[in-house]
Specification:
Layout lengths: L5 E3 L3 E7 L4 E6 L11 E9 L7 E3 L2 E7 L7 E5 L4 E4 L4 E5 L4 E7 L6 E9 L10 E5 L6 E3 L5 E6 L1 E2 L2 E2 L8 E8 L3 E5 L4 E15 L2 E6 L2 E7 L4 E18 L7 E3 L2 E3 L2 H12 L10
Antiparallel strand pairs: 1-21, 2-3, 2-21, 3-4, 4-11, 5-10, 6-9, 6-11, 7-8, 7-10, 9-12, 13-14, 14-17, 15-16, 17-22, 18-22, 19-20, 19-21, 19-22, 23-24
Cofactor: Fe cation
Family: Belongs to the pirin family.
Pfam family, one: Pirin_C
Length: 285
């Protein structure tokens, strides 16, 4: 008898929240995924039409901004390293904040709605104090694979069907944007957690005898326990999903505002670097 070597979390909801008149987000309740979401520490499926956040610091993790292809407008991204660019629909900026960086983002054109995802991905202790790094992939740099079953897969990071995404963070992470019209199979790498989020539509997910049904703005996470395992996704008509997978650092986590470290001493050191200007400066526009 074959023993199941994959375990599922409960299903989590991304509940809508509004911040002013120009920003709303479906914020995923990662706690409901009972630890299976690591290294993901924040997940906002957002829409924005105007400036919302002032320049702010990050340290100890990566802040990832991805614009969906149906976004009307682009997202301007600035940081204290000197970058000033526009993330166009279908593109990504991976800000590996690590030792610390100051950045801000807002719609490139006021009033043009931006539809995207902001993801916070934790870094392990050994990489939290690396120099900050910003990686940009334009939409035309993102490879797209159409499977024999008709799934369309955009590969932002990691590997699918032996094709590598254009962004290579310091720690392995897979980010796939998948449009389904028929069944699709994803093999969860050994020892990794995978988070599957439904942007639109509905689907049934299964592995071995386990089966779950998900609709828009719901997510489930799974962990491969001892070997790579296949997860099968069957859409009800069409579905648009994100598949995100990475390794849980399995280390203590301490969070204070925009800093994710391993302990209070790490948080205090990050805060001191920020107030002393060691993360650089970024004047508001």
């Amino acid at each position: 008898m074959t023993k199941m070597s994959i375990k599922f979390s409960p299903i989590a909801e991304a509940k809508k929240a509004e911040l002013g008149a120009q920003f709303s987000a479906h914020r995923l309740d990662l706690d409901a995924l009972t630890g299976f979401s690591a290294p993901i520490m924040g997940f906002d499926h957002f829409r924005a039409s105007g400036p919302t956040f002032a320049p702010h610091p990050h340290a100890g993790f990566s802040a990832v901004s991805y614009l969906f292809e149906d976004s009307t407008g682009g997202l301007r991204n600035r940081d204290s390293l000197g970058h000033d660019l526009v993330i166009e629909p279908g593109a990504m900026v991976w800000t590996q904040a690590a030792h610390g960086v100051v950045h801000d983002e807002h719609p490139a054109v006021n009033g043009e709605e931006v539809h995207g995802l902001q993801l916070f991905v934790n870094l392990s202790r050994s990489h939290k104090n690396l120099p900050p790094r910003v990686i940009h992939a334009s939409a035309d740099q993102v490879p797209t694979v159409v499977t024999g079953q008709g799934a369309r897969v955009r590969i932002l990071t990691g590997c699918f069907n032996e094709i590598e995404g254009p962004i290579a963070p310091v720690e392995p992470f897979t980010f796939l944007d998948v449009t389904l019209s028929a069944s699709f199979t994803y093999s969860v790498p050994n020892g990794q957690n995978v988070l599957i989020y439904v942007l639109s539509g509905a689907l049934t997910l299964s592995a071995f005898s386990e089966q779950r049904s998900l609709t828009a703005h719901q997510a489930i996470a799974a962990r491969s326990l001892s070997q790579p395992e296949d997860v099968h996704l069957v859409p009800d008509q069409d579905a648009h999903v994100l598949i995100l997978s990475g390794f849980d650092p399995q280390e203590p986590v301490a969070v204070y505002g925009p800093f994710i470290m391993n302990d209070q001493a790490g948080l205090q050191a990050a805060y001191s670097r920020y107030v002393e200007g060691k993360m650089g400066k970024l004047p508001p526009l």
